[in-house]
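Job type: complex structure
Entries:
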Amino acid sequence: MSKISHSQLFAVLIGIRMFSIICSVHPSDAGQMAGAAISILLQLAAAIPMIALYRQKNFSLKKELLFGKFGKAVYALFFILWGSVSFSNLWGVTKSVYFPIDSSLTGAVILAAICIYTASMGIKSLNRYSTIMLGLIFFSLFIMILGAYPKAELSNFAPNADFTEITESVIREFCSSGELVMMFILLEFVPEKRSKSITAFFTGKFILTELVAVIEITVLGKIMGLSDYPFFSAGAYSQPFSIQRADSLYMILFTMLCVMTVTLQIVLCSMLIKEIFPDLKYNTLLSTVLMLGASSAVNILNIDLTAITGILILLLAVIVPIIMYIRRKLKHEGKKSDSAVPASADA
Amino acid sequence: MKAKNLIPPFLLLLTLNGCSGKSEVRDKGFIRTIGADYSDVQNISLQLYDSDEILTGQGSTLFSAIADSEHTQGKKLFAGHLELFASSPENIYENLSTLLKNNRISPSCSVICVPENAAGLVSESESDYLPELIESSDRSGLIVKKNISSVIDDLLGTDGKAAVPIFKDKEIYMAVIDGEKIIGVLTRDESSGLCWLNGGIKDIYLPLDINGRKVDFYVRKSSTKITAEKQGDKINITAEIKINGNAEEADIDREAVKQNVSEQVSGLCAKTIAKTVTGMKADVFGIEKSINARGISESRTWEDLIPNINFYYKIKISE
C-alpha cells in the first residue's frame, strides 16, 4: 500500500483548502473572518474522534468502515460530488475571470484528461505534486502580500458583525470543508504523526483563511461587492510589478490546484470503486466521467450543492467516525468482559 | 517509469500547445485611451499605442461601441493595456463598472472626467497629452490620480460621490461627481488641499513667505492618516499629516518655516473640507471609512451626520 508522510498529508489538505478559498464567491468581512475562525475551531474538535479512531490498535478503515460496501459507495459518491464541485468552480472562474481558452467546456475536458493521467500515476505522485504546490501557494501569497502592502487600506476593515452573519459564515465555512472527508480516508495511508499533521493543517487553514480575507478586505474595500471572485480581484488590484498581468500567477495557481483537487477525488473514488467492484476496469475514467456528468447536470439545472455537501461532510467526517469509535470501544469492552468471565469462573 | 507512461503527456504536449486560437501581435491594436460620451447611445474615440490613427464608434453599450470602432480598420482591438478612460459625467458609473467587471482591463487604468465631448477631446489631442498631463499634475500635487477601482470604491460609499480629475478649459482640476453628473469643480487650492488630505505628496516645493522673505520648502515625502473619534453627539475627524522636508535655505528660522508650512497646508485642507464636505456633502478622503474602522456605530444618515463632524489638523514636520 502507498504511504503518505505526515508532511505530505499536510500539503495535500492545504492545497485542497486553498482551492476552496480561491473559488469562494462570498465577500470577506469581519463577520466572515470571525465565523471562519469559529468554524475551524469546531472542525478541529470534530476531528478528534477521527484521530482517536486511528490511534486504536490494529485499526483499518478498509476493513472496518461502517456499512461495508454501502459505506464505501457513499464515500465514493461524496468524492464524485466534490469533484463535480471542483469542475463547476473551474467553469465559473473561466467565465468570470479572463482565461485564454476557447470555451469553458473545452477547458474542463482538457483538465479532465490531465487529471486522468495524473490519477493513473497513483497517490505517490499526487503527494509529490502537492509538496510542489505547497511551495507555489507560499510563493503566490508572498507575491500577493508584496503587492497588497502599498495598496492595502486598513480603514476598509470595519469591525462590525452580527450574530446571524457569524452563524451563516460558520455554516458556510463548514460546508466548504470537503477536505475533512478526504482527511478521514487519507489518514489510513499515514503511518505516524497523524495528530501532528492534523494540528498543523488546522493551524495552516486558519492562517490561510484569515490572511486571504484580510488582503481582500483591505485591498478591495467596497469593490468586493461587485467582484465575482474576490481572490482574483485582490490579485488583479495588488500588482507588485509594473506589468499589468502579474495576476496570471494566481490563474496558474488556480489551474494547478484544480488539477490536484480533481485528481485526489479521482484517486480516492476509483480506489473505493475498486474495493466495491474488484473486477471493474477503467475506474479512473469512470470516476472522471461521473464527475464531469454531475458537474454538467449541476450547472444546467443550477443546483446549489452547499447544503448537500454540508450534510455529507457532517455525516462522513464527523458522525461516521464517532459511531465507528463507539462501536470499536463497545466491541473491545465486550471482548474484555468475555475474557474476564472464565477467569472469574476459574476462581 | 515505463516508456508507455510518457506517451500521454507527449501527446498532450503536441496537441494542446495553445496555438489553435493564436493571433499575431501585428494583427492586434492595443487601445491606449478611450474617450466616451453618452447621450442616448455611447459615442467613443480610441487612441492606439504606436499609432496616430483615431478610431470612432457608436453603440448602445461601451463594448458594442468599441466593437463598432474595430470595423473601421483591420486590426483586432485589445483593451488589456488601457491607460486612460476619459468620460463625460453622464453614465460614468455604469461605464466604470463595465470596465471593472471586464477582467481584461487593468483596474489601475486612470480615469478623467470631461464635462463635454470627451470623445472629441481624445480624438483632437496627441496620444501622450492626457496621460502625461495627469501624471505630471499628480506628481506636482495639483490633482489626485484616480483609477477605475478607486473611483468606484468612492461612488459606492454612503454619500454616493467621488473625486475625480477633470479637464476643463484646457486645465486640470479635481471635481466631485456622483454616478451621472458633476456636483462641483474644485479650485486649484482646493484640489491641492484634497491631495494633502489623500496623502502621499512628495518631491514638491512649497513657496513660503517668512517675514517678507520668499523661501522654498522642499517636501521630500508626506503621509496622511484620517482618524475618527466619538465625543458625545459629535464625531471628531483628525487629519494627521506628517511631512518630511526642509527649507532650501539654511539661515532661516526653522520654527517659523514649520509654522508657515503648517498654516499653509491646514489652510488648503480647510478650504477643501468647506467646499466638499460642507458644501457638496461629499466624502472624498475616507471619512466614512475612518468612522467604520473605529467601530463607531452610526444610525444617522450621512447628510445628518455632517453638521456633527468637527475637523482637526495635526501637521507634523520633520527634517
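Summary: The domain at 6-324 of chain A is CATH 1.10.4160.10 (Hydantoin permease). Chain A is about 75% helix and 0% strand.
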